[in-house]
Design brief:
- By secondary structure, the protein is α/β, with parallel strands linked by helices.
- Helices cover 30% and strands 21% of the residues.
- It has helices spanning 2-23, 131-134, 193-212, 223-232, 245-258, 274-280, 302-305, 311-325, 327-333, 349-358, 363-370, 372-378, and strands spanning 26-33, 41-49, 52-57, 67-70, 75-78, 80-85, 142-147, 154-157, 159-162, 171-173, 177-181, 237-241, 262-265, 284-287, 338-341, 395-398, 409-414, 417-420.
- Strand 6, helix 2 and strand 7 form a beta-alpha-beta unit.
């Protein structure tokens, strides 16, 4: 009797597992399919089997048990990629610096290089993801994100993750980039740009030596220098957060000096290096949000007007703002591959992308920057970025073209899991 009960329970479990597996299989019928580099398919079909795309194109036969969804009036795009985000993370507190030696034995504590102020190279953000926060991005059609700390000179290791609540998080690529920045730091070493560059160079020298001469068993290992060494020898790519023309040149110089595999995150100054970025095949992560327009009108208060900058200077700043608004358009015209980040304004990603289109960015280039070009820059083009058989079923269904301000996100699929978007979320 016990054996019979056990067999029945086992059969019930198998039956339940089979039904759950079938529940994860979908047929999207009568759907308009738009995927970069491929002809638009009107009233086509997408078959989702498990977490993968099994069919794309004209309607075809499919097995029974699939969930059939009539997508008349809907357009399917590859799920959008947010190429840099500091959200959805629960990062540890910044560690306290070790106690400095007495001043008579060396430099002041603020200038002591061993405090490694702003150096978090061993911080692996894939170990600090808040899965519950990832689903908040669905209303913008985002199904894939790169998460980064945004900290210090060496911000640590970024990761690319599927935008779904799962424990553990669905990480597509861990250790995607070592994040670097020339700005920030405050007072004390390495607060100045010169000190930050000196720190980076010394760290890369140390990291390169460490990679060539790893510690033997029993010797103390240095996780920070080891992580920098991985970037110094090209095992891990580098993501430079550099927005001004001068910072970008510094990043290029460091890349040349140490043979780094560079990707740039910066918008305002990037267009000034467009030809070189194109020639070097360096991808750029650009801000979707446009810069804030400076006020050039003179102050109505005549007393306060006396302390204002000259009108010529303010007019020049306004001209610079206009150039920076067109930075993405200029990068595209120069043939530079770029991807969008929503950092700082995640709820307006699509609205901000449409502003670039209104300024002259071709719609197909904008779509590529949200999908396949972003996936390529982040190193996940084999998994996401196009609607293609064998890739992850990460899709967004919209009520109209993504360029239409009135379009709504109806549903997203993230690695085969379907999420419906309510009107309130849109």
């Amino acid at each position: 009797m016990t054996n019979l009960l056990g067999r029945n329970l086992a059969l019930l479990a198998l039956s339940l597992a089979a039904s759950l597996a079938l529940a994860e299989n979908y047929v999207l019928n009568n759907v308009r399919i738009v995927s970069p580099g491929r002809p638009v398919v009107e009233r086509g079909m997408i078959i989702v089997s498990g977490d993968k795309i099994a069919h794309v194109g004209a309607p075809t036969a499919y097995e029974s048990g699939f969930n059939v969804i009539d997508c008349t009036g809907l357009t399917a795009y590859p799920g959008f990629v947010d190429a840099y985000s500091r959200s959805a993370l629960r990062l540890p507190d910044v560690p306290a610096a070790p106690e400095a030696p007495p001043a008579n034995d060396g430099p002041l504590a603020a200038m002591w290089h061993e405090n490694r102020r702003g150096v978090y190279a061993d911080l692996d953000v894939s170990k600090h993801i808040d899965p519950a926060a990832l689903a908040a991005r669905h209303n913008q059609g985002v199904t894939t994100l790169m998460l980064a700390s945004g900290r210090g000179a060496f911000g640590g290791l970024t990761c690319v993750v599927a935008a779904m609540q799962a424990e553990p998080a669905n990480v597509l690529v861990a250790r995607a980039f070592q994040e670097l920045s020339f700005s920030g730091g405050g007072g004390g070493y390495p607060g100045s740009a010169m000190a930050r560059i000196a720190l980076m160079r010394q760290m890369f020298f140390d990291g390169r030596y460490y990679a060539a001469n790893p510690p033997q068993d029993g010797d103390g290992k240095d996780a920070v220098i080891g992580a920098i060494g991985d970037a110094a020898i090209g095992t891990v790519r580098t993501l430079f957060r550099a927005d001004s023309e001068r910072e970008i040149q510094r990043a290029l110089d460091l890349t040349d000096e140490f043979g780094l595999r560079m990707t740039l995150m910066g918008t305002s100054g990037a267009w000034q290096h467009a030809a070189e970025l194109k020639q070097r095949n360096i991808g750029v992560v650009v801000e979707a949000a446009l810069p804030r327009e400076p006020n050039v009108a003179p102050n109505e208060d005549p007393v306060r007007r006396l302390s204002e900058a000259p009108q010529e200077y303010r007019d020049a700043q306004h001209k610079l703002w206009q150039d920076n608004c067109l930075a993405v358009v200029k990068l595209q015209a120069a043939g530079v591959k770029f991807a969008f980040t929503s950092d700082g304004d995640p709820g307006s990603l699509l609205e901000n992308v449409r502003k670039h289109i209104a300024l002259g960015l071709p719609a197909d280039a904008a779509l590529r920057a949200l999908t396949i070009d972003a996936a390529d820059i982040l190193g996940v083009a084999d998994k996401v970025g196009t609607i293609e058989v064998g890739k992850l079923a990460s899709l967004v269904l919209m009520t109209a073209d993504f360029t239409d301000a009135d379009t709504k996100v109806k549903s997203v699929f993230v690695a085969g899991t379907k999420f419906d978007i309510t009107t309130e979320e849109n």
